Amino acid sequence: MIKDTLPSEPTHGHSLAEDFARIEAQMLRRRRALAWLGSSAGAFLVGGCGGGGSSSGAATTAATSAATSTTAATTSASASSTSSSTDTSSSASSTSCVADPQETAGPYPADGTNTSSGSTSDILTASGIVRSDIRSSFISSTNVAEGVKVTLTLTLANTGANCAALAGYAVYLWHCDAVGNYSLYSAPAESYLRGVQVSNSAGQVTFVTIFPGCYSGRWPHMHLEVFKTQAAATSGKNAVLTTQLAMPSAVCSAIYPYVSTYTRSVSNFAAISISTDNVFSDNTSAQIAAMTPTMAGTIADGYTATATIALAG
Hints:
5-stranded mixed sheet; disordered N terminus; 5 helices; 4-stranded antiparallel sheet; 313 residues
């Protein structure tokens, strides 16, 4: 009897039913194997592409976080760079200055350019005119001008050289007293509230004086002339700049009504403004800001004041 089974073929049973059972079992094993291979391949592909499970989700989150951190760092660096640029620009702009306008020396300069009571008065040639504290008379009287103390520092800047300091320049400062009188004129026996200082290496001069009063028709102010050297400061005709300082409105209002020495100034100040003043009214707002000293202090302790005087050196 010839067997119907070959080594390469599956072994058959003794009946058709038994063969069907064997075939069905083999097919089931193949389906399970294919299913297992399919799931393993899918898992491999999913893992390889970074999707799916919790570990790949964490990796995605970490990548997103890193990207966000990088963006934040870039933004921060950009902001830092912008800030640095802004600071540089701000620093550069802080060296800018507004040229002071030429103004009248007025009728009371005592600088040899006009006459008073029939004679020419030139205090610039008087011995002792170079001084920092100008509150006292020094010619024929030693009287001290009464009023609220002001320590004024002026910085001379060269508009032709990026506002560099002007050293060695002479500044002649003068102004009225608390009741509105000028020494050598309406107060002829006095020589107070006039003086000359020479700028240091920082371009600065400092005067100790009093806050000026307000007389009829003028905004409270101080006069000054600038000379290239102390030797040149012998006459107002040699000045390279003649200008004025406008007193801050807030300080005027803080002093005049509360100090008896300034009683006359109260009504005079109420009747004047920068826009109606015959000297300051035609200046620009930038010029007025530059001509108005920055002041701080109290009546009891006195005030400190600073201003930049800018001119072509």
